[in-house]
Q: What sequence folds into this?
């Protein structure tokens, strides 16, 4: 808020100073002399004012009149349509050099300087409407018969959205985008916000780099480095005048080109079909591709259709280097692929050898596994096996039970 007050005060001061300085510069002003007397003149700076509906418009002007017309009795602002200036929208009665405003429009229209001896006719029109887009004339009535409706007139233009200027964009090359909005009212300086919405519907706010204030415009400049993802994105600027906001947006066109590619399998079996596709993403679109085989286009001319190349019943002589070439913005793009053609007999021999090697490897692995399992089984049996020994004499039958512990020591039970 404090920043806005400073801008407002500085703007009003600069406009008033400019009005005073402009009064003596007739070569750059819109001036007319009335009734052939050089003392009647008016200067509007600027002669056209852009206003936003619902806000106000500042008419900045100075005027002169002859000594014989003093003191001024009445002043008026008159609306002009179709070349006719008839309708009073403001009328002021001058009493002791002070302006006494009259009529209902004075609630909406007010002169900044009530002392007309200062030759300042600057006026603010509030609550601008679409129908206010017209030309307006200033009228002075002095001592009879000295009175005049000044010409030229001032024009009010209604603008309900900002104006955007976007230069041609190219990927990786910085560009300045501008958004200009009317600055009609010193009391409500605008604030501009930039934003961009990419193809993924992601909205990002952007910071502007330079902001300039002219007599009647507020200009914001955005330094943008375009990328291919910004192509067809939407960029916009919102201009806020307190509670009032106007907006504008544009679709970006970014010139870009990505790497040219050839899609397809580099190995083809004899008798099968070779399919290659040449593709590149760019804006604007690249030219149609030109295919070459081993340096010439004649041998495969009948096999190409746009970006596609297709050869049925491939033979050994179709093996080699295939090149695709396109033109983008006077730049030549190309890519190549080497095609190998394999005979079916060689494929079958490779399959047979592979099967034999696989079979032998399988047998070898199985034998090793079987041997390991057998050894483990014998070891387990030797550790846990229980022996029974029968010992018999003439008097006693003795049963011996023999066991082995984990270390292999023999334990005998009777």
A:
């Amino acid at each position: 808020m404090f920043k806005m007050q400073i801008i407002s005060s500085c703007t009003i001061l600069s406009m008033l100073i400019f009005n005073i300085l402009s009064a003596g510069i007739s070569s750059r002003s819109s001036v007319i002399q009335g009734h052939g007397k050089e003392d009647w003149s008016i200067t509007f700076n600027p002669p056209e004012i852009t206003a936003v509906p619902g806000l106000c418009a500042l008419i900045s002007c100075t005027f002169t009149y002859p000594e014989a017309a003093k003191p001024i009795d009445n002043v008026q602002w008159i609306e002009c349509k179709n070349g006719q200036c008839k309708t009073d929208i403001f009328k002021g009665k001058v009493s002791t050099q002070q302006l006494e405003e009259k009529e209902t429009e004075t609630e909406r229209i007010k002169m900044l300087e009530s002392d007309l001896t200062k030759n300042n006719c600057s006026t603010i029109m509030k609550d601008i409407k679409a129908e206010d887009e017209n030309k307006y004339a200033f009228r002075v009535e002095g001592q009879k018969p000295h009175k005049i409706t000044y010409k030229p007139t001032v024009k009010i233009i209604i603008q309900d959205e900002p104006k955007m200027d976007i230069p041609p964009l190219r990927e990786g090359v910085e560009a300045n985008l501008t958004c200009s909005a009317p600055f009609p009212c010193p009391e409500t300086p605008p604030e501009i916000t930039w934003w961009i919405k990419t193809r993924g519907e992601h909205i990002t706010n952007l910071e502007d780099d330079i902001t300039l204030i002219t007599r009647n415009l507020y200009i914001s400049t955005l330094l943008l480095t375009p990328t291919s993802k910004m192509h067809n994105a939407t960029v916009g600027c919102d201009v806020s005048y307190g509670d009032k906001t106007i907006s504008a947006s544009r679709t970006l066109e970014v010139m870009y080109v990505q790497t040219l590619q050839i899609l397809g399998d580099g190995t083809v079996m004899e008798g099968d079909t070779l399919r290659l596709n040449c593709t590149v993403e760019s804006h604007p679109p690249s030219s149609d591709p030109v295919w070459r085989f081993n340096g010439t286009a004649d041998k495969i001319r009948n096999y190409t259709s746009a970006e596609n190349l297709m050869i049925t019943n491939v033979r050994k002589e179709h093996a080699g280097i295939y090149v695709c070439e396109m033109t983008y913005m006077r730049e030549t793009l190309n890519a190549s692929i080497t095609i190998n053609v394999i005979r079916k007999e060689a494929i079958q021999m490779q399959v047979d050898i592979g099967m034999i090697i696989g079979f032998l490897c399988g047998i070898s692995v199985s034998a090793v596994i079987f041997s390991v399992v057998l050894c483990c089984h014998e070891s387990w049996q030797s550790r846990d096996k229980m022996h029974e020994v029968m010992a018999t004499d003439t008097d006693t039958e003795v049963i011996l039970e023999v066991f082995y512990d984990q270390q292999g020591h023999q334990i005998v039970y009777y």
Observations:
- Residues 171 and 366 are 63 Å apart (CA to CA).
- The two ends are 112 Å apart (CA to CA).
- The domain at 163-256 is CATH 2.60.40.10 (Immunoglobulin-like).
